[in-house]
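Section: Multi-chain targets

For targets with more than one molecule, the full set of components is provided together so that the structure can be written out for the assembly as a whole rather than chain by chain. Components appear in the order listed by the source. The example entry contains two components.
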Amino acid sequence: MSHFALSRRHLLKGTALAALSVPFSTFAMAEDGTRRLTVAADSEPKNLNPAIVASNGVFYIASKVIEPLAEASFTGADGLEPRLATAWEGSADGLSVTFKLRDGVTWHDGKPFSSADVAFSALEIWKKLQNLGRSVFANLETVDTPDALTAIFRFAKPTPFQLIRNALPVVTSVVPKHLYEGTDIATNPANVKLVGTGPFRLAEYKPGEYYRLTRNDAYWDKTAPKLDEIIYRVLPDRAAAGAALEAEEIQLAAFSAVPLSDLARISKVPGIKVISKGYEALTYQLVVEINHLRKELADLKVRQAIAHAIDRKFVVDTIFLGYATASTGPVPKNAPQFYTADVEAYDFDVAKANALLDEAGYPRGTDGKRFALKLLPAPYFNETRQFGAYLRQALAAIGIEAELVNNDSAAHQKAVYTEHAFDLAIAPPVFRGDPAISTTILVQSGTPAGVPFSNQGGYANAALDEIIKKASETVDEEARTELYKTFQQKVAEDLPLINVAEWGFITVARDTVENVASNPRWAVSNWADTALKS
Amino acid sequence: MGMMARLLRTRSGLIGACLLLVMALAALAAPVLFPGDPLAIAGPAFLPPLADTAFPLGTDSLGRDVLAGLFHGARASLAVGLAAALAALLVGLVVGTVAGFAGGWVDEVLMRITDAFQVIPRFLLALAFVSVLGGSMTTVVIAIALSSWTEPARLVRAEVLSIRERDYAAAARVIGMHPAEIAFREILPIALPPVLALSAIIVAAAIMIESALSFLGFGDPNIVTWGSMMAEGRNVLRSAPFLSVVPGIALLVTVLAVYLVSEGVNTALNNNQAVPRG
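Its structure, encoded as tokens over all components, is:
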């Protein structure tokens, strides 16, 4: 008995220690006057190097430490504002791009930043190792560095400057050459202990608890940063973020960490604001992926019927509670550079859908059912799962019996993108500023099995493939934009997949946090101008 | 006096049986009262209870009728609970009787297998099984049965061990009855009553495991169960608590009813001779 008591006392002591080990004040202003912003983080990426892993989970933390050449902007020319580069220009033949770099920038370890760092990052990391850079910089041959502040990217084949420009915020995180050269880049310790040029330094990381970023006093912009510390509290439980905001334990939760269904309530809490801006360049798309190897689904009339059976207004109003927009095609509305509304539209029309299915030669059986399908909703978002439940009902209304199959992330990716074991799937792909980055791959044929978020439904359309290929080599901006407009029309016409809605995330913050959503990639930008009201 | 009558004369047995009867009637009446798919979108989303006579218990986040879900959920919960308990009992009875009657190495082997199953926490075993084979009604039933057969097996074995030494068992051997016939026709019926008391607990546990699996998203997404209703409701716990509370109460009442019946069976068995005053 005494043994049990002893162990329990030990246990209690352990708990007390754990509670003490998060020593941060819950107030914005600590006793010592530190301007500290505490935010919620829902994941702890294994590799925190944004030059290698260009994903939002990594950027959310790393973009404050490691900067890109340019950042997305609401007001800047071509939707960009300078970061490490101050000017950029593409040659008329599409074979080179010249970057003028910022003067007087130093790395967090005190070494000067120069064009050699950009050349090294581009050739050794973006082109070879980065998930998105591998395709954007596929034809990058060399990077000339005539002086310390000029980098000239030279391409083997004409590469559209428009694409490079649109990709700048996402694919061009610059890391220090002197820490990576001659090492195994993928396992370099600097991938976790980041060294960058950004407004904040990564000071401390406690797995399962927090990341602590401190002010970089030597930041090139002398007016920034306006905070002394950023703490990322790891809160994987979605319900916890809302409660932590209300208790003032955190001051900001980005990436819809507070569920949509809780927004109406939390927006009424005094001192808390709900912000839907700041994600314009990170648009997620709700897409029905179609397995064209299935006889019924290879028929355009059946695909049209499914498109007509979906009530996009219901999806936006009820599933997304208004925090989304109905889609017309594969390019979202908030990419005005490429978007065209001049595409085939599919209104919600159950009678028409039923007529189309009758025409296609799939009459209702005696039980009212035409045929049965397997429907695999992606498990990543609550909304994709809910849309799965909705789509099953929408299909039932037109006599198609859909059987829902729920999988975890790994099993879902394997089933859809490797084994093609689906008839319909629901995916949330991201539009990343240019259709060539992650959008055309959704309809292009010839992608090997196993590539996630690619066309694995066996769809092959020579005309569309041709447009995609041509656009990838067209240097002239206007001609290239036109090609992508044709691309949108063809996709809406032939329905290799069905675009249903598009949405951005929601930030919930205390009133004291200023300059939230100051650019279209705000949550994953450097937060140099973010401030706390004193 | 019949077992049923004795059961109903205990207070807990009577209350439990009545509650179960109500649940069973609800389950049976579901397709009549709420024809069609209970997962169909029937009205506006997030209608609170008692706001609209068409939806007395309100609607969920997609506009599905909570009352219809509750009735159809009773079907799923009771069906899974009974099927899983039946399967677990069958396996348990056979293993227990064979082990107890045969003895020797057969007993050793069967009991070690039982041990192996018993050391794994019940719910984890079911969870592992379902996550590998995918969530469908059948796999959930098998998973629960797989994790619940050990207790009846042990109980039956213990009973059989004592019964097989009695005179009538010896007499059956003397007149040359086949051992299997002795085991299953002479001994098993005598060993059965205590297992019946246990069976109610297995049903209750099965209903709980099914709900927990659905709650974690491992159930069959094409049917409505109380667990899946609670899982959906959890996301909106603070703005629409009734979505989790209503199926939670149904689950609580059902499991309580089953326990009360089990309690009643126990009392009835113990008061075999005396007049039960429950």
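Chain A has three domains: 2-57+198-280+507-532, 70-185, 283-503.
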